């Protein structure tokens, strides 16, 4: 199976306060790390997230926790292209650390729907983004 297109790599330092009473990063923080990585990716493409007429909204997030991350560490999140529909796209992710890059700490995906903020209705994923995702322009 061919490797999916690498879209973005984010490095996020783990803060001491990210840890929970079990001595590892709290499960809810992983979702925030993934959000930060997606926002940084969109910004790198020139896609603004605030005060814009259209943009992505999270429909579904799935993350499989494979190994706990412990402070001190820097989380490395690789975002890869998943399927692209008419108004939705899937961004897959893999999570490792700078300190232990060979270990996969977690993986999953986020399904996003492109919406018109004024109407709260889905609209087609922009062609520029479709091309970045390797899906080609709409027919």
Automatic annotation (TrEMBL):
User: Out of the domains of life, which is the source?
Assistant: Bacteria
Source species, please?
Metapseudomonas resinovorans (Pseudomonas resinovorans)
What is the official name of this protein in its record?
Answer: Acyl-CoA thioesterase
């Amino acid at each position: 199976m061919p490797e999916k297109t690498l879209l973005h790599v984010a490095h996020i330092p783990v803060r001491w306060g990210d840890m929970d009473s079990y001595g590892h990063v709290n499960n809810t923080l992983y979702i925030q790390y993934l959000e930060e990585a997606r926002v940084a990716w969109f910004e790198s493409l020139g896609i603004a997230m605030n005060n814009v007429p259209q943009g992505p909204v999270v429909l579904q997030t799935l993350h499989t926790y494979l190994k706990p991350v412990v402070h001190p560490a820097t989380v490395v999140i690789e975002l890869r292209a998943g399927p692209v529909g008419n108004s939705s796209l899937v961004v897959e992710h893999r999570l490792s650390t700078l300190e232990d890059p060979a270990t996969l700490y977690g993986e999953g995906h986020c399904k996003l729907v492109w919406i018109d903020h004024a109407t709260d209705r889905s609209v087609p994923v922009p062609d520029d983004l479709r091309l970045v995702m390797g899906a080609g322009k709409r027919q």
